[in-house]
Each structure stands twice: as C-alpha cells, then as structure tokens.
Amino acid sequence: MQAKGPIRTCRKSWECRYGADCNENNTCVCTHHCKGQKQFPVCASNRHTYKNLCKLKKASCMQQRPITIKCHGDCDTCLS
C-alpha cells in the first residue's frame, strides 16, 4: 500500500523530492512503511516530536517540504 502525499509529476530522470518514489504513472508517491519500527522519538525542525526517524521522513514526504532532526528525544525536553 502506498501512502499518497501531494501528487506531483516526477522530475527529469524519474526524480522525486523529499523521499518520494516515482511510480509507473510518472507520479511521485510516498512509500514509507514505519509499522514495526522501534520508537526512538526525534524532535524535528517544525518543532513536532515524531515517534521515530521513519515517521519524520514520512511526514516530510507527505507534506513535500524539508523536515530535519533538531535533536533526539521529545521536543519539550530537548528544546527547553
């Protein structure tokens, strides 16, 4: 099952942004599968705590914008 974010056409050479994959229809789709990933919280550049790095990367893909790690752990703890 593919998680769909904003639908975008693949750029030249079948390239997509923010971790998306180009499918056979020349459309960028987010294919992150985070189920079963261990939960090591990370605080992101958008000041949101994600359960793990996979969830952060999936959010970046779905929102089609850069989201990076600010620190490891809950934002309330590591940004205070």
Distance between the amino and carboxyl termini: 38 Å
Low-confidence region ranges: none
| Helical content band | 10-25%
Rough outline:
elongated
Radius of gyration: 14 Å
Task: Give the ordered list of helices and strands.
Answer: EEEEEHEH
Number of discrete helical segments:
2
Q: Can you list the strand order of the major beta sheet?
A: 1-3-2
The secondary structure category is alpha+beta
Task: Name the average pLDDT.
Answer: 88
Total beta strands: 6
Task: Report the sheet with the most strands, covering strand number, pairing sense and barrel closure.
Answer: 3 strands, antiparallel
Fraction of residues in β-strands: 25-35%
Can you walk me through this structure?
19% of the residues lie in helices and 28% in strands. It has 2 helices and 6 strands; from the N terminus they run βββββαβα. The protein has a 3-stranded antiparallel beta sheet with strand order 1-3-2, covered by helices on one side. Strands 5-4-6 form a 3-stranded antiparallel beta sheet. The protein starts with a strand and ends with a helix. 20% of the residues are buried.
Compile the SSE list and pairings.
Layout: E1 3-9, E2 21-22, E3 27-30, E4 42-44, E5 49-50, H1 53-63, E6 69-72, H2 75-78
Antiparallel strand pairs: 1-3, 2-3, 4-5, 4-6
Q: In a few lines, what is going on in this structure?
A:
It comes from Clavelina lepadiformis. With 80 residues, the chain is an alpha+beta fold. The chain has helices spanning 53-63, 75-78, and strands at residues 3-9, 21-22, 27-30, 42-44, 49-50, 69-72.
